[in-house]
Amino acid sequence: MKKFKADLATAQQKVKDGNIEGLDAIKIGISDGEVVLVFKHQNPPSTMRIHALAQDTSEYPEANAFMLYTEMDDPPGSVTGAIRDASDYVIGVSVYEMASQVAAALNARLNPKTEQAVDSDSEPQFDGELEDNPDADDDDDFDLDEYDYEVDAAFGLPSTRPKPSQPYHPTAASTRLLHRIRQDLKQVHNAGYKLGIIEQFAKTVTSGVFSISIRVGALGLSEEAMEAWDLDEDEYIVLLIRTDDYVTFEDMVIRPASETRPKFRVGKCRSHKPSLHQALCAFDAGPKDAMPRDANTGVDDQNNEFQKLFLSNSLDQFMDESFVSLSKYREHNGCTWEQANEAVQKMSVGTMENSELGYDPMDVEDTTQQHHHILLQDHLRENQKERSFPLVAMQFAMQYLIRCTEYCLRCHRKLEKGFEALRPYVCSNPLCLFQYMSMGFGPSIEHEIQTEPYVVDLLISLCYAALRPSYLAGGPQMHCELPIRDLPVGLQLKVADFSGMDPKFRARLQGNRLVWDEDVSGLGSIMAPSKWIAFRQIGTQCFRHARVIDFNLGTKSAALNIVATSGRQFISSAATPSIPGTPTSQAMMNNAEPTLADGQIVDVFPYMLDFDLMTKQQQGLAMVHILDTLPRVLDIAAWLGQNSLKSLKGMESISPAAASLLQWIVSSNRSCIFQVDRRRFAVNPPTGSAALTATDELAGRGRNREHERIRGMPGWIQFRFAQGSPDKELRFNRALQEVAQSRHMEQPTIFAWHGSRLSNWHSIVRTGLDYNSIANGRAYGNGVYFSPHFSTSFGYSSGGHFGGIWPNSNLNFSACMSLNEIINAPDRFTSYTPHYVVSQPDWHQCRYLFIQPINPITGITNEEKPANIKFLPLAKGLEPTGQSNQHISIPASAMPTRNIGVGRESSVPTKRSRSQCSDSRVDNEDAEDVAIVFEALGLDDNADPPAKRPATGDKHRMTDQDDNLTVTMSADKSLTDFVPGALDLSSLPRLKPPSFANDSALRAIGREVKKVQAVQSKTPLHELGWYIDFDQISNLFQWIVELHSFDASLPLAIDMKNYKVTSVVLEIRFPKDYPFNPPFVRVVRPKFLPFMDGGGGHVTIGGALCMELLTTSGWSPANSIESVLLQVRMALCSTDPAPARLMKMSNSMGDYAIGEAVEAYIRAAGKHGWKVPEDLRNTVGGISLPSFHLSPHAGVCPATGAHHTPSISAPLQPTLHLHFSHFPSFSSTNHASEGCKYL
User: What is the mean pLDDT of residues 774-788?
Assistant: First the structure.
């Protein structure tokens, strides 16, 4: 409390001195920890009081959060908006910082600065009349994509359109800042990322947009992940950063977050940076055509087009809202990103405990696991005085992008581990689930439509079918209920009264205008531009939907953009009973859409009813009408392709209600579904005999998965569940493991069909199959019914679609079937003959979905099994049959890895591990951008710009830490017989990344990687004499090195040539506290002739190296790996007292084992009196070390004449205790025990 009071006094004095604009005073509130901010607003003159309550003064400021509120009964939206803006940035800050945040937010909301003078004598004209409308302030339908920027100036509002670059006049301060910007960007380049200097940023101005990128191929992602995330290894992940005035990291962490709030956009690009036009469009919500084009390119091409990722919306918002706050928390508390996010989340709800404030500096996120080592870097843990804000931002983005499946998609907290998800999902927190499904915080709907349009079509169609009342499926005698289980909640949808009971008003239709004869002064807010209405012929249930273009009080008319018609399906049959709350009229019984003539009087229903306040039947009816207005998904995808950076709401033919409903439909499906065959089908009307024709043109930009299609199912369109809903998939995995532990199963799962009415599949896809309701009886007991025979299940899939087919579907299907994976324990089923009846809800998962279009499909003729595809072995006697009653084969590549006993290999496409990163381009894309950083304005005179590296010839490429830094490694066959990359690394022992490593070791090894890469890239192979394949380093603590190109006159080189050995393979294992302890170095292959048989070269009988340099006694933290490799090579080349020789190949089959190498290493150290590292066991992979009793028994090395003090006798204990301190000490010079006879 003392700290709080002191800071309060300081803040009060600063306010008195006028240091916070708009703030008149800070007063003490009536509660402990409460302060009152008195804010004066000049236009119009007014005073307001904002209360700030410190929720935990005992932990102020680090673990405290301020709660903001106002005492005003009915505060204007600008005030509540300002409080909302500031609330995210008053965590862990001082009173002064909090007050500055609140004042800045209020000033931004209340005092916008104009960019264009407005004539004070004129007022903007508005044809409509504003009235007190309870819905006016609650309108969430406003869309920035539809914003008219020309109106800004007329109302005195600041323009958000990007301004062209202004002439730059450097000052001393700006020159210093430019220098710092280039220093920060240089650190980005040195960390291995590519720079994108856009327009004049970092050249002459300190504000603007710039990019940081890394090639996808450098991230070590699996093929499955790249497929699920719609990434290609030749594309770039691009982080765009926009700053109004560049702020250094040091300033950012001490200033209020609202004053240093940069904007971020994460996406992908074919080039290392987007064009100026694309970069500005990524941040600007205005019309794309209004944006300035890139002066250099004129128009955008596909290479510099900036595209959203599937999680761009989530990640952009997270970085905009939380990056600054989390960076400040990390800087002040020395924790990780995960810990900072966890602490800030807890502080925001007041649950932060005092004991949770301490962090172990050694507690580092395990980013080593299977990822490219560029992601191991953490700039905030480096002991640098000046940190690079852009580098920290890029590392933050990479943390939450590459590891996105480990974090909640909404709160970004760590998820429970139970299976390897393909796509990110949300945690079980109800708020996260609600925001994910209902508020657009889930996957990017635009991305889903562009990549998998038919999947979106499928989801809309299934939802549409589930909205048909059950009486249509089973007859008028059934109770009127909707098959859909969960309707959207909290979407704040505004819809029309589609029951038709109470039209708002009537008007005359004249072409595309509504005309009134009576007074319309009260309709100004209802008929304002961009509002949506529905209207119909009186007495019918068929609605037209329109967007208001203009409303004119003078002419009593409104111009409309009529975009869609809904309700045709209600024109069905006379037997249809009325829906509660809806009318029944003779017009609904007609089979033709009513025609509307000019001058006809129509009922008008504005989109103004609150969807959440309707009954379930009314909600279902409203959803049907809204979905009727949606264009075909392929048409939406085509529009998005032409407007790649616009949101769905920018499409004028889609109402805000339809866009929100479509977002909910896609987001509420948490399964990962792909269409197996992406060929585009010709669109045909629902009726008629025309067939659907499969063309060669692909639908969407996703991958074609023809190799995953199940043959023998002609006439059915196939979809594959790459992953079910995360919670269901997790329960299935657990159940599978439990059953597998209790019994031996050659094939852990079996496959069977399930058929159900079309109206049920919306819920099945989301929550899985259950038996909560009875549709066809339970003759064989309770449970979900499956059949191994397609024909049996197909009989249950008919019906349930009467009028329930979405009229705008490109697929236009009427039946749906699933092929399900079931745990192979039939004896524990309720029944397994003639059907499988599974009562355990977690024992089955849908893997394929088959839909049958109303019209037959032509154009798919290849039903033969491809010879190059591996299929899943199925349980004998339990194989499922297809349409022709023949056994079907399931591609192994289509099944989740963790479920099958064989690998998921498939020749199309090739599955690759994360470590097999590849890159086929040269590393000169950003050379000009980097040159700006090094040379601009001559401020970096000591730095040389990077040279471009051409890619010529068929040379081996190696990839380094600098974003797959491409260098050419040419091997002159006249000088060496060594071939880079020929070593089969899969035949060598590979260690898992250690869990014990500290950050100091990670940084040190990372620096060594960079150094040796630089040396290897610049030195000819025959001169260098060693080679490391950096593409294959999946564990930074274990390197494989090849020594080669020895002097041809050496006995070792002669033996290598005779035995056709081109390299000596070494393994280097680094300790957890490197560089303070030496690495463990050993020979893996070939085997060397022991000293006792005439060999030498300092290689022990177990493959370890007898060199004091590699022990604690001779090691120095100043030693580099390059020098270690040089000395090891010199030791192998030494002929004194005997040269190194190889064992005869017949006697040296196999490699040196790690155990014998460790034993020989300890034995050699003991003979020479060298100290062995205390943590050797962890360094060598946790193997059991030999137990020796060391006694002071002298020996002499014949090579040097040095005394060997301790000797080794029989083992005494199961653990190794080496105590060298009581033995005589000897010279610690770095010499090798040349030809030691005891080894």
Answer: 80
Q: Which sign does the torsion angle of CA 598, 599, 603, 605 carry?
A: positive
What is the per-residue DSSP string for 906-969? -SSSPP--TT-----S-S-TTHHHHHHHHHGGGTTTTPPPPPP----SS-EEEE-TTTS-EEEE
Q: Which tens digit of pLDDT belongs to each residue from 1165-1218?
A: 988 899 999 888 888 876 655 554 443 344 444 333 344 444 333 333 333 333
For residues 664 and 619, give the distance between their C-alpha atoms in angstroms, rounded to a whole number: 14
- The token duo for 1126 is 């040089």
Q: What angle do CA 46, 50, 55 make, to 5 degrees?
A: 175
What are the CA-CA distances from residue 1038 to residues 739, 913, 1005, 1071 (Å)?
Answer: 37, 17, 10, 10
* H/E run at residue 1161: helix 1154-1168
Name the pTM for this structure: 0.57
The string of DSSP letters for 4-43 reads HHHHHHHHHHHHHTT-STTEEEEEE-SSTTEEEEEEEEET
Residue 692 pLDDT > 80, yes or no?
A: no
Report which listed range, 109-118, 913-922, 1201-1210, is most confident.
109-118
Q: Work out the angle at residue 577's Cα, subtended by the Cα atoms of residues 573 and 579, and round it to the nearest 5 degrees.
A: 120
Instruction: Please state which of the ranges 89-93, 163-167, 775-779, 975-979 shows the lowest mean pLDDT.
Output: 163-167
- Give the C-alpha separation, 903 to 267, whole Å: 32
Please report how many Cα atoms fall inside a 13 Å half-sphere around the Cα of residue 904, on the Cβ side: 19
Tell me the pLDDT band of 825, cut-offs 50, 70 and 90.
very high
Residue tagged active-site, from 269, 281, 917, 1106: 1106
Phi, psi (rounded to 5 degrees) for 776: -130, 20
Provide the 3-class DSSP secondary structure of residue 1207: strand
Do residues 768 and 472 touch, judged by C-beta distance below 8 A?
A: no
Please, is 547 exposed, middle or buried when counting C-beta atoms within 10 Å of its C-beta (0-12, 13-18, 19+)?
A: buried
Cβ-contact 184, 226 below 8 angstroms: no
Average pLDDT, the chain: 75
Determine the Cα–Cα distance for residues 1018 and 408; give it in Å rounded to an integer: 44
Residue with the larger pLDDT of the pair 480 and 493: 493
Average pLDDT over residues 293-310: 63
785 strand-pairing partners: 837
Nearest in space to 37 (alpha carbons), one of 46, 45, 28: 28
List, in order, residues 6 or more apart from 927 with CB less than 8 Å away. 945, 946, 947, 948
179: tokens are 């220098």
Using DSSP, state whether 490 is helix, strand or coil: coil
Q: How far apart are CA 899 and CA 892, in angstroms?
A: 10
Nearest to 1001 by CA among 372, 365, 377: 377
Is 408 designated active site?
no
When comparing pLDDT for 92 and 1197, which is higher?
92
DSSP E strands in 373-512: the ranges are 494-495, 505-510
SS3 462: helix
Tokens at residue 549, please? Answer: 């273009």
